[in-house]
Amino acid sequence: MAELKINPGLRLIERRGTVQIGLGSTGLVLEGTGQGDLDFLYRLRTGLDDTELEHAAGNCSITTERARALVAALESVLVDPPAKSEQLSGLRLDRLAPDRAHWSAVYSVDSSALLANRARAAVHLIGLGRTGGAVACALAAAGVGTLLLEDRASVGPADVGSGAFRLADVGLNRAQAVRKMIRNIDPTVSTHILSNSMDPEAAAGRPRFLNLVIYTDRDVPNARISHGLSEGDNPHLSLLLRERDALIGPLVVPGQSACLDCLDRHHAQADPDWYELCSQVHGASAEAGAVDEVAQSVAAAGLASLQSLLFLDGRNRPAAWSAVLQLRSADGTVGRHEYRPHPECACQLQPALQDS
Questions:
Q1: Which residues form a coiled coil (predicted)?
Q2: In CA terms, which of 5, 43, 105, 117 is 20 to 30 Å from 21?
Q3: Residue 303 lies in a domain
Q4: How many domains does the chain have?
Q5: What is the DSSP letter of 165?
Q6: Position 207 pLDDT exceeds 90
Q7: Is 148 helix (H, G, I), strand (E, B) or coil?
Q8: From CA 311, how far away is CA 212, in angstroms rounded?
Q9: What's the whole-number mean pLDDT along residues 331-347?
Q10: Residue 251's beta-bridge partner residues?
């Protein structure tokens, strides 16, 4: 016994004797369809047990053979229903209805189970300015169940925008303000505030077995935080805001992809003064104010959130895997720069350590 159901994320469009399911080049077109066929297709939209096929065909005034032929033609757009334990309920069922439809279309499955899995995911966010705060809110809105929030700075006027902060938040600790906004988005999300988790003396108490860490900063990564991320052995994604662009990535999966130190080594091969430059830039950045321009911040936060959700869902490999996505403010284009693990980087020892 199996349920026959058309992917809930795909549109069904009637066109003079034809029916199109799904838009774009991957849409499925059925020609020579009559009213009975349409009635049967709409029955499949809600789900139909295969043992009821003959009865449903009769109710739609088509033969059982015609119904079976339609089911065969629809094979590429049929999905298995989620188990009852994986179905959304309550507030999340209503709030995530657009997300369920979108990701069902993207992944070619009923995405209810994936959205339910997000509720069991834990993500640590380091850096909660205008951009980092927007990422935190996006993940909460997308159904991620646990968020660890870390930023010692206070909300300033330049942090206020379309993301996590409002004028009333100016002066509050950023992590506290983000937590307040998340509670307004979804009170079922579990939030915890951390402090200085990447300091060397805090290594023993660092969160482990996280699904993802997202580190947001400006210009270049902080060496202390980069080292802490590599030691933590959690997957992590960096997001850097610069004068003319934003860099999303790499998405680092320990032992499988290039890490932040790998990128530094590649850059240093091309520029012998790379490490000195990073030191000077980071020192100057610490003295300067926020660099998160409004539109760039929203776009970068959205792109980083998308990469994060793709990784958490585990269906498709994100574009930022072992690569950096460069969002250019001058024309809005996104470039992709892929990096291989550097042969001299210590991260290459991680697979052997994991196997031992």
A1: none
A2: 117
A3: yes
A4: 2
A5: -
A6: no
A7: strand
A8: 9
A9: 92
A10: 237, 321
Which residues are CB-neighbours of 143 under 8 A, at least 6 positions away?
92, 96, 99, 115, 118, 119, 186
Q: Do 242 and 218 contact (CB within 8 A), yes or no?
A: yes
Q: Which DSSP state fits 254?
A: T
Radius of gyration of the CA atoms of the chain, in A: 24
pLDDT value at 25 more than 80: yes
In CATH, what number is assigned to the domain containing residue 200?
3.40.50.720
Q: What distance in Å separates the CA atoms of residue 292 and residue 159, rounded to the nearest whole number?
A: 8
Q: Which residues of 241-267 are buried (b: 16+ CB within 10 A; e: fewer)?
A: bbeebbbbbbbbbbbebbbbbbbbbbe
Q: Is the pTM of this model over 0.85?
A: yes
Kind and range of the H or E element at 85?
none
Neighbouring residues of 96: CB distance < 8 A, sequence distance ≥ 6: 88, 115, 142, 143
Instruction: Tell me the CB-side half-sphere exposure of residue 233, using CA atoms within 13 A.
Output: 10
CA 286 – CA 45 distance, rounded (Å): 55
Q: Tell me, what's the pLDDT at 284?
A: 65
Count of CB atoms situated within 10 Å of the CB of 282: 17
Q: Distance between CA atoms of 78 and 84, rounded to whole angstroms?
A: 18
Work out whether strand 212-218 and strand 122-126 pair parallel, antiparallel, or are unpaired.
parallel
Kindly state whether residue 100 falls inside one of the protein's structural domains: no
State pLDDT tens for residues 165-184. 999 999 999 999 999 999 99
pLDDT of residue 350: 60
Q: Which domain holds residue 247?
A: 119-355
Whether 98 is in a domain gets the answer: no
Banded model confidence at residue 285, pLDDT cuts 50, 70, 90: low
Q: Is the dihedral of CA 14, 26, 6, 110 positive or negative?
A: negative
pLDDT mean over 185-200: 92
Give the end of a domain, one of 58, 77, 96: 77
